[in-house]
Amino acid sequence: MSDRYLQRDQPAGVPPLELTGERTLPDVPEENYWYRRHLAVYEWIAARCAGLRVADLACGEGYGSAVLARRAADVIGVDANPEAHEHARLRYRQPNLRFQRSLVERFSEPRDAIVFLQTIEHVEEPRELLRRFAGLAPTAYVSTPNRLTLAPPGAEKSDNPWHLREYTLAEYRELLDPCFSRVEVYGLFHARKLRAHELALRLGWDRVHKALRLTRPFYDRFTPAISSRDFALRGDDLSRGLDFVAVCHA
Predict the structure, then answer these.
(1) Residue 220 to residues 32, 151, 191, 223, 226: CA-CA distances in angstroms?
(2) Domain with 120 in it: what CATH number?
(3) Cα(228)–Cα(58) distance, integer angstroms
(4) Most buried of the four, 47, 79, 97, 161, by CB within 10 Å?
(5) What distance in Å separates the CA atoms of residue 218 and residue 209, rounded to the nearest whole number?
(6) Averaged pLDDT for residues 69-85
(7) Residue range(s) defining the domain that contains residue 211
């Protein structure tokens, strides 16, 4: 894989991670859309975790754990990957933040909230894990991509090789509801310039930029400029959401 898909400009002594497709990374301009899409959800959850003890399970690179630690009293970031764990441990150093290398299925420390984002689609026995979450914390935040906006029409899943299963809204509800006393589901949608880009595509922007040979110059500027404010969480029109974010109450 080319160096352009390694993280750029890391602090001294922090090894950059490679973009493999299994995890999302900051500091890779080509990955910025996906990073900001994840970051928007972390920021939304962080605002609801002020003063709480939080576990960020399958935390990957660690940026989300650091966002949660800005508001939470105490955060543990848990990930089994040795390179991701070492990177997170060295890069994100806050008094109320620590990282633990472990399988999420083995995590057993009671918490006020569990955060488990964009990972349930990777899990072989998801219901067993969700029931475990309900026994560890009164609230769990669990997100997953909406299959209807990720996979081709009629397909059972996208071509992402890391995903074992992808869910429609009804299927996601069917998975979550038996494991918790109450579940609220929100949808993540494009906002601001990403919403404008959606509308431009409907009006034929794809044909225009290709015809004028503007594709690469435009997206080389547009993609790195995307911010977390270009996404919004809402409780309506969920079937059209990019991702589902469930707030699960034990």
Answers:
(1) 11, 25, 20, 6, 11
(2) 3.40.50.150
(3) 21
(4) 79
(5) 8
(6) 97
(7) 3-249
